[in-house]
Amino acid sequence: MEKVAVIGLGYVGLPLAVRAKEKGYDVIGVDLDESKLKSIADGVSPVVDGFVEEYFLTNPIDATSDFTQIADADIVLICVPTPVDDNFVPNLGPVKGACASVAKHVKKEALVVLESTVNPGVSEEIVKPIFEEAGFTVGTDIYVAHCPERINPGDPKWNVTNIPRVVGAFSAKGLAKAVAFYEKVVDGEIRPMKSIREAEAVKIVENSFRDINIAFVNELAQSFDRLGIDIKDVIDGASTKPFAFMPHYPACGIGGHCIPVDPYYLIEHAHKKVGFNHVFMRRARAINNYMPHYTVEKLQDALNDIKMPMNGTTVAVLGLAYKANVDDVRESPSYKIIKHLEKQHATVITYDPFVLEESTEKTLENTLKEADAIIVATNHDAFTDMDLGLLASHDVKIVIDGKNCLDKDAIEKHGIAYHGIGR
Fold first, then answer.
1. Which of 4, 126, 235, 264 sits at 20 to 30 Å (Cα–Cα) from 211?
2. By C-alpha distance, which of 301, 261, 300 is closest to 281?
């Protein structure tokens, strides 16, 4: 039985580890987060993921913080974060650290796959030298590949089992090994790329495409707010065209570990490596980064209309997670909205049924009872399905719908001011 070691047991690594175990591999997981390791040891998934929750207990994995446990692994999958700092500068520290630890303990002839999202050139300029410095010859006695992660937390259809993947490697043998592994654990298409650099570029392109299109509709939303046009209706109308249009919708910001992060890896690399300035991508990032501030501006305008000051007004932010029905708060725009509100001296309360430990309130009804105004920052079912009559009964005066997920007409019938993003 081949042994698989998964480095990093978060939203990417843990589903992959469980899937590999389900497919008959001996699996060891490595993570430095002791609370996560304890949760796994207790049989409780540390991440909210439909596939993991269904198969975790029937396919238990061993998890440790000890890298010596990977010494007999045939396949090592590196699934560590690739964040940016407060100035949007990429931080490859986790990748470098993980690769150095793996290189120190991995056996010869093993396949090492980097799943972390990186810019083109990282495998050649950073990963390969780490293994060479450890005494390996990449492509001869160690095989290094890149298969950029594709995961969509909370998606009931697409998960680690069926999302198609792309793979690149330094050698034909390494590529064949990587393709064979992923064809065994993934039911979707596995596409081999001509080079490892191409594989790295794929993920950056995927998420930059989404970032740019979302920026387009976010800019339209700001324009349509002034023109009195409902952007949701317009996009729904444009979607009737059966070709050459793909709907994207505006919102109070973009969260998650991919779209608001990945473009910076190419932006910074291209600028530093070859002096190329990705003007279009930079502009898209600037527009999307502005949306939490714009959302608070909409609240300020709505308060001005009813002659209420922001200072001292109790504003409830509904949702801390970055997307619906998950507990993932990475890069969530909610926290930026909260900071903007606090700068204007609003009294901020928060509620998220999936992130109760960080919420100031523990029930939706109590949150509404305390609030003068609400900002819906996450379209959890708990919010989209709530009884809108509660807003009126608790004297909520303003609703800022940051996800355009509520019934505008129904809210206004209760005499409550409604403002969406572009509607």
1. 126
2. 261
pLDDT at 147: 98
Active-site residue set: 258
Q: How far apart are CA 389 and CA 206, in angstroms?
A: 41
Nearest to 388 by CA among 373, 408, 370: 408
pLDDT of residue 382: 97
Average pLDDT over residues 290-310: 97
| Residue where the block lists tokens 């317009």 | 234
Task: Tell the burial category of 352 from Cβ atoms under 10 Å away from its Cβ (0-12, 13-18, 19+).
Answer: buried
pTM of model > 0.90 = yes
Burial class (CB in 10 A: 0-12, 13-18, 19+), 385: exposed
Ordered structural domains, the chain, with CATH: 3-194 (3.40.50.720), 228-423 (3.40.50.720)
> Which tens digit of pLDDT belongs to each residue from 177-203?
999 999 999 999 999 999 999 999 999
Q: Quote the CA–CA distance of 298 and 291 in Å, as a whole number.
A: 10
